[in-house]
Amino acid sequence: MIDVVMLNKDRRELKALHDTAYDISAFLSDSEWDWHLYADVKKLADYLETGGSADFSCLDLSCEQGVGWAETVRRKNADSFIMLVADAGISPMQYLKPSIMPGALLLRPFSRGQMQKTLRDALKQMLLAYEGDNRTGGFQLSQKADRKMIPYSQIYFFEAREKKVFINTGNQEYAVYDTIDNLQERLPEGFLRCHRSFIVAKSKIENVYLSKNYIALEDGITVPLSRSYKEVLKELK
């Protein structure tokens, strides 16, 4: 169970942050998530005082004693990934310090796209620590007499072409004699079919462009998206 704590005095902003994080989390991990949303610092205090945990925290520093509450969350949850929401009225000197150690920062005013990207990057980083490298294990590749394992965390996508399947790791690719249909059945939950010839790593997805029929991955890499697979990916748009 992953415990997520969100504190934000603006209820509309709190809902937007939660809804966005909820959608992203469903694609990044199959773990169970428990969401604790607070617009009132007193309710957050009650949660923390009764031993409530926070694996991931999104904290609004403009709340009453917001910096102090961020320090409290860190003190009670040493391994929590803390994402802060702040504005120009708060000096970075107040929150960029060892007693808080934020892993991500969202500065107001921010767009929906900025919110999505910051949350996606933050949740990915939290999951690497929470789940380990999931992607534990990897794809076994046999090449003549040698056997090589490609960690799942390094794989961007699988592509079927030339009667083979090519494994792309961003700066290199490896070929195996297999079919994309067989791989779809064998790969772990972190991979998603997006085209008759492509399977993509969920953790590498940056954005989905439904109208343009492609998916943007990390490092400027793109893969095609076919109509029959749009439904499962539309929440990442």
Summarize the structure.
With 237 residues, the chain is an alpha/beta fold. The protein contains 7 helices and 15 strands.
How would you describe the overall organization of this protein?
The protein is of the alpha/beta class. The protein has 2 domains: 2-131, Rossmann fold (3-Layer(aba) Sandwich); 138-236, LytTr DNA-binding domain (OB fold (Dihydrolipoamide Acetyltransferase, E2P), Beta Barrel), CATH 2.40.50.1020. The protein has helices spanning 11-28, 41-49, 66-76, 92-95, 112-131, 180-186, 230-233; strands at 2-7, 33-38, 56-60, 81-86, 104-107, 138-143, 146-151, 157-161, 164-168, 173-176, 191-195, 198-201, 205-209, 214-217, 222-224. Strand 8 and strand 9 (164-168) form a beta hairpin. Helix 1 (11-28) crosses helix 5 (112-131).
Structure keywords:
237 residues; single chain; 2 domains; Rossmann fold; 7 helices; OB fold (Dihydrolipoamide Acetyltransferase, E2P); five-stranded antiparallel β-sheet
Major beta sheet summary: 5 strands, parallel
Low-confidence parts: none
Structural class: alpha/beta
Oligomeric status: single chain
Give the number of DSSP strands.
15
**What fold name goes in the CATH topology slot of the largest domain?**
Rossmann fold
Which architecture of the largest domain would the CATH scheme give at its second level? 3-Layer(aba) Sandwich
Q: How confident overall, as mean pLDDT? A: 89
List the topology elements.
Elements: E1 2-7, H1 11-28, E2 33-38, H2 41-49, E3 56-60, H3 66-76, E4 81-86, H4 92-95, E5 104-107, H5 112-131, E6 138-143, E7 146-151, E8 157-161, E9 164-168, E10 173-176, H6 180-186, E11 191-195, E12 198-201, E13 205-209, E14 214-217, E15 222-224, H7 230-233
Parallel strand pairs: 1-2, 1-3, 3-4, 4-5
Antiparallel strand pairs: 6-7, 8-9, 8-12, 9-10, 11-12, 13-14, 14-15
Helix pairs in contact: 1-5
